[in-house]
């Protein structure tokens, strides 16, 4: 094959930062600090300090590809670590500080982290794991020296500002192979041990291009971006990279995700874009509505991490004039797979007519492809009705997990990765998650969405929490039952609850029984652990 | 180095088409045909026919990387060839049909084209070159069989529709090395032979991502794009690729670039975006203003290929409410380098205050970088005043020319390509072309922009055309003189013309003399050939 004669340059994360420094050097990076107060930085300052990070990592004699862990909120120092660590050829490992200390220690050791950089908020957590993580040679606290006690120092902690101050700002980014590992992120692991996804420079840069497109998050140098999604959750959905790639102003909320704090940042900094999970956004909306405030310069909201209630989509649009964009992805996808932006053909629909479409998870951005298939591996039609296992492939989709024994591929022969979700896709390519593959109930050859069953139950005034699970059945394979926790002070009437399903779903989909319990087991990220629930109900018999 | 564990898939042009077919299959591709009438296609139809193109190319037993030439206007068949030829692993070679037949023959032979596909408009041209291009084994006319005469057939011409009809629509795109050559484009070659730029799949896909960004052309699935720039000019600035990548509707004007025809398409098809050179856009604006029409759904215009007069930028904005985006690039850059979109800091400027900024060529999109340097290779400051040689580098910038003897690199040791332009860059990264490197006048260590001198002369009512060139000077190295063609019926008064420079430019920049001529030599694309003008004036003596 004849090769093209264009410049062959690797796609590198350091190039994103160089670009931001050269072309958007005075664009602000604003952070609410753990120590209190608002910190004002810029891409130029960020780039200089990222080079100091790289020098500091070199000074610690880390080998190429060694991991640097972070336990940190969204803030400028975390951004510096994102670029400085990856740019230097090492791997940034963001750790979810909300996990149990045992899990944090397990993850640090599994990743073989050499340095851990952490916010002051996590001093106690670090105290609990330090002795169990012998591979870590340096513990860096993301603060100035004045914040460390003599005891802290004596125990070997160093402040980030001291660590950087010892380093020059001059550094020449290495020209890496673009396939080099850049960042590491562990899944929440509701079943079994967490799995480690290892991103590359190439996958990160391509993902950053794609998520900045008009039909994705639409980032420009006129935007001010506030990622409410934590930087320890799949790189804050890639927003820090895409912000620098487009020269957008970045506003980072630190540990304060309550409505008042977030609203203050939006108003003070002219935020145009926020992204987050529904629960955090709900807190913000509640604050705005309680105070009869306006959202000011904000014009759009990307919602992901969990299905967004249609009522919230409607509220954001009707009450606040915001474009509410539903999105879907996963750690294994860097994370963005789909966003729910309209096509030209939907221009003439009213907001009400668009709502059912906007409640879907959306359509693929170029760079990822998707399909649905049945249990036998046969592709299912894109008719908006057929439910199947959602499969994805693309430039920023996982091929295998890190440290999972021989790096064995987790994709099929055609390169498709099973998301573990069950979904429909309509003729226009709009995908809607209907269930998790392990939760969907298979009854008489048809699939029943446990989520759909739960949503109906949750609308009932007496129900605080509801889980739908499949129980083995001699004739139908499985039949759904509903496990509910009553609201405090309320009691759940089995017949009345089942009657409430009439007319809402097909008759054969209505659960066979209701089991009332005191609580349903939840995982670290608040998801119901149905596997545990099934264990608890192992002696249960269908009526 | 540890590699990331993400899917390693090549960046391929065929993936763009697959994506458009799967996710935007019913999105329209509308064309005005050479044969008359409007043709309605879709990405699904386009993809099926592109696969037929690939099968047809295979049936001709073309080797991988063999070239398929086109002499064609903007139309659906040309789009099918773009994707079908490149997707199959061959190289699409778009030829400028406005060149002299001798040049076309030279280019076809230099490229070693195996098949030529051409619009009916170019039957005569092909008749003139066929015998001189023995390497071409097939001549395909982009029409149905009914358009070919018996004589045409007897001479070996085949119609495109017959050629395709013989082929199945099933075809499995080869998984190519992403560095494989995909398309070939010759520069206009105002000096010496045309130079050949060979694009790769990788450079094309990355360019498509970048030009679709909000700060570039901002393409979405709600857009209807009308490229007035021909598909034989640097792949219509990459618009066909980026349209498919985003699922935007595509409207192709065929050979009719007059105001009435273009306006008819804009109105009938709900066009939201046009891109073209200033002269073609001027024709469109004149039509709209003469008929007191509105631009309807159109909301933005990208202008490139030549500097856009500030008056046109103002007119589009003030009279028509359109966003007029100045842009800059070159064949060697795929072509996009900069676009002039505002930053957040410019939000508060009035339209009048923004105008001087919008008249600049704009700022870089991520993926290309630029700098200016003096004759000694020293970098110059980004102060908006210092003029220097404009250097670029990036993923879609040329590294060497095709067939130019040993593929010797045309970049310096740090990978920078000399654009041949002279420019300033301001502190915000906005670049403005002030001259061509070979045209700038170097007087007493300072650079005088020939373009700036010419613009002042062109504003004079008696001047039809003006060229400023440097004449050797014993003390100042060079001094500028002005060569002018008077308007019909007018005569140019030397002293009055020179007096008109007072207060407009620095005194030492005012030309030393005015030479009145009947005509100034022009090249094939309408550019002044100053090299020829200098030859004509070789006996000229400064006063």
Structure in a nutshell:
2 copies of one chain form a homodimer. Chain A has 543 residues and is an alpha/beta fold.
End-to-end distance of chain A: 68 Å
Q: Strands across the major sheet of chain A, in which order?
A: 2-1-11-10-12-13-14-15-16
List the uncertain runs of chain A.
none
Output the radius of gyration of chain A.
24 Å
Largest interface: A-B, 82 and 82 residues
The biggest beta sheet of chain A, please? 9 strands, mixed
Q: How many individual β-strands of chain A?
A: 25
- What percent of the residues of chain A sit in helical stretches (DSSP H or I)? 25-40%
Portion in beta strands of chain A:
15-25%
Task: Return the structural class of chain A.
Answer: alpha/beta
Regarding quaternary structure, what we see is homodimer
Mean pLDDT of chain A: 95
| Number of discrete helical segments of chain A | 16
Global shape of chain A = globular
Describe this structure in words.
Two copies of one chain form a homodimer. In chain A, 28% of the residues lie in helices and 24% in strands. By secondary structure, the first copy, chain A, is α/β, with parallel strands linked by helices. The first copy, chain A, has a nine-stranded mixed β-sheet, sandwiched between helices. A seven-stranded mixed β-sheet of chain A has the order 7-6-5-3-4-8-9, with helices on both faces. The first copy, chain A, has a four-stranded antiparallel β-sheet with strand order 17-18-19-20. The longest helix of chain A has 17 residues. The first copy, chain A, starts with 12 loop residues before the first helix and ends in a 7-residue tail after the last helix. The mean pLDDT of chain A is 95. Chains A and B meet through helix 1, strand 9, helix 8 and strand 16 of A and helix 1, strand 9, helix 8 and strand 16 of B.
